[in-house]
Design goal:
Two copies of one chain form a homodimer. By secondary structure, chain A is of the alpha+beta class. Chain A folds into two domains: 80 residues, Winged helix-like DNA-binding domain superfamily/Winged helix DNA-binding domain (Arc Repressor Mutant, subunit A, Orthogonal Bundle), CATH 1.10.10; 48 residues, 2-Layer Sandwich (Dna Ligase, domain 1). Chain A contains five helices and five strands; from the N terminus they run H-H-H-H-E-E-E-E-H-E. In chain A, strands 4-3-5 form a three-stranded mixed sheet, with helices on one face. In chain A, helix 2 packs across helix 3 and helix 3 crosses helix 4. The longest helix of chain A has 14 residues. Chain A is globular, with a radius of gyration of 17 Å. At the A-B interface, helix 5 and strand 5 of A face helix 5 and strand 5 of B. Bound molecules: manganese (II) ion (2 copies) and zinc ion (2 copies). One manganese (II) ion binds next to loops of chain A. Chain A binds a DNA duplex through helix 2 and helix 4.
DNA sequence: TATTAATTGAGACTGAGTCTCAATTATATA
DNA sequence: TATATAATTGAGACTCAGTCTCAATTAATA
């Protein structure tokens, strides 16, 4: 089945909790989601997966590259399916919560340049711009 | 005295807790610091300022522009004196915790350009690059 | 100095996330 | 397929940063 092969693809051992979590995540489509939302989804589906296992699984999935954590400075992390789109950064509307994605290759290049100058070896970066979207004026 | 005038400068009402907090912050020099570190500093100096007041004061100072919050994704905020240097971004070494500051006007301009294209009104941004500093290879 | 509004401290509380450990389950091998 | 071994799980206690409440205190101002 599809979710099982997804886990093998990322060399993650297949267990019932993990498959249920993957299935809930699938329902979010393209949305960014939190671990607590995954937990709610599990509960709605009568799944008994524990909070600890949900956090463990989602950390593991991020580790293995299946998910990508997104830090919008909300005090908890959001996640997105890594395979659905490649690296990008986010605009975050403080009024309505909307998340706008963008990708800017020139910014990325300049970041690399800064790192070279400082002899810094980047592992990851977060560029988040907070403000008001056009609907919120 | 110096700290009192600092508070008037930012139109912040002068109270003993706030003056003690400012004085502890002064001791950090240029270092980025957390609220809990300020609290430790207060305790070391036998001050009885409460945790609630420390958080309240530091939020107020950030509001008023005396401090600038820095989000390194550690699960809590750090702060720096806003007047000591103008806006800049950070490289953060995951191995030794070192924070390297940088300022890149071309990156800032490209960010504005992204915002214009998306009709987004930026209020603030965080660009943090996480990785290994040259000492940590 | 008296009035009024802002600030404070104590400690209970919240929310996200981690930890422990005995019980369960997946995988590898015979 | 049965068994051994190692990985995973669930329950709930726990941590840590930060917030809240509210009566008591204190600052600004006249
Ligand atoms: Mn995204
Ligand atoms: Mn800085
Ligand atoms: Zn909006
Ligand atoms: Zn380092």
């Amino acid at each position: 089945m599809k979710n099982k092969s997804l886990l093998s693809q990322y060399s993650i051992r297949k267990t019932r909790p993990r498959l249920q979590i993957i299935s809930v995540i699938g329902k979010f489509k393209n949305r960014h989601f939190s671990v607590e939302e995954v937990l709610k989804g599990l509960r709605r589906g009568k799944s008994k997966v524990s909070r600890a296992s949900a956090y463990r699984a989602i950390n593991l999935f991020s580790q293995k590259g299946l998910l990508r954590p997104i830090d919008l400075g909300k005090g908890f992390l959001l996640y997105e399916r890594a395979s659905q789109k490649s690296h990008h950064d986010h605009l975050y509307c403080i009024n309505c919560g909307k998340i706008i994605e963008f990708k800017d290759q020139s910014i990325e290049k300049l970041q690399m340049k800064v790192c070279r100058k400082k002899r810094f070896h980047p592992k990851s970066h977060t560029l988040r711009i907070t403000g008001l979207c056009k609907e919120c004026l």
